[in-house]
Amino acid sequence: MTRRFLVFRLLTAPALALPLALAGPARADPNALWRIVHDGCVPHFDAGKGPTPCEVVDMNGGVAEGVAILKDRVGVAQMLAIPTRRISGIEDPQMLAPDAPPVFADGWKAKTFVEARLGGRALPREAVALAINSQYARSQDQLHVHVDCVRIDVLKALEGYKSALDDQWRAMTVALNGRAYFARRLLSDDLIHDEPLLRLLADGLPDAKAHMGAMSMAAIGADFDGKPGFVLLADVFSLEGGGHAEDLQDHNCAIAQMAP
């Protein structure tokens, strides 16, 4: 079975699974994050009253490219990087446009807010993950990137696996939290001047661009022979699960106890 056919087969599952999801219990308000940012953080920031209730509002040169950082109600230190314009999620075509908001780069900068919530304890880059869930495995219809600690078992698995990674997406031969992810490396210190991560996914993994709503992605800090970078991970929603890269994170941040 070719890799392309494997990805296509997995990507056909959401069409079957979506009616089941819609038949389940009613979700929490899917517009809650949008209202917090649009009706709270941005107006307060524009009025010179600070970004409250967000940690920061970074307009990155203009409102169309703005990103707000908000403490999630879940977890001891979890932050969310949220565009200040209306973008539904990973499936939104705006995220593949040249003016897409830099949610992953700003999310990585939010590592400092995670550390502040942990009493100022500095975390190695390998201990922090950025994650975005698929359209079918999320509760909010405003795009948001989860910024939080990595699960310890995921950290250990990647430490032994990262030497096998290069600049091409390939199916991993070891599972992460029970899921078989696609993975590649990206040499970058902070994601600021790099190709947007969702574009790397859309253009690099067969069939992904046509089915972005089914995709989930994570970027975990890494060091490759002394060069800073990230392990990029992608998963596909299916009837068996997946599409929820947030599962690679530990919202209790046990890994912080290992930091020097």
Structure, explained:
- The chain is α+β, with helices and mostly antiparallel strands and 260 residues long.
- The protein has a single domain (3-258), classed as HIT family, subunit A, CATH 3.30.428.30.
- It has 7 helices and 9 strands, in the order H-H-H-E-E-E-H-H-E-E-H-E-E-H-E-E.
- It has a 9-stranded antiparallel beta sheet with strand order 1-2-3-5-4-8-9-7-6, with helices on both faces.
- The longest helix is centred in the first third of the chain and has 15 residues, at 32-46.
- It is globular, with a radius of gyration of 18 Å.
What's this entry about, in short?
With 260 residues, the chain is an alpha+beta fold.
Main pleated-sheet profile: 9 strands, antiparallel
**What would you call the structural class?**
alpha+beta
Mean pLDDT: 89
Task: Give the proportion of residues in helices.
Answer: 25-40%
Please count the beta strands (DSSP E, at least 2 residues each).
9
**Broad shape:** globular
Radius of gyration: 18 Å
CATH topology: HIT family, subunit A
**If helices are DSSP runs of H or I spanning 4 or more residues, what is the number of helices?**
7
Can you write the helix and strand succession as a string? HHHEEEHHEEHEEHEE
- The CATH superfamily bears the name HIT family -  CDH-like
What brief labels describe this structure?
260 residues; alpha+beta; HIT family, subunit A; nine-stranded antiparallel β-sheet; 7 helices; 20% strand; globular; disordered N terminus
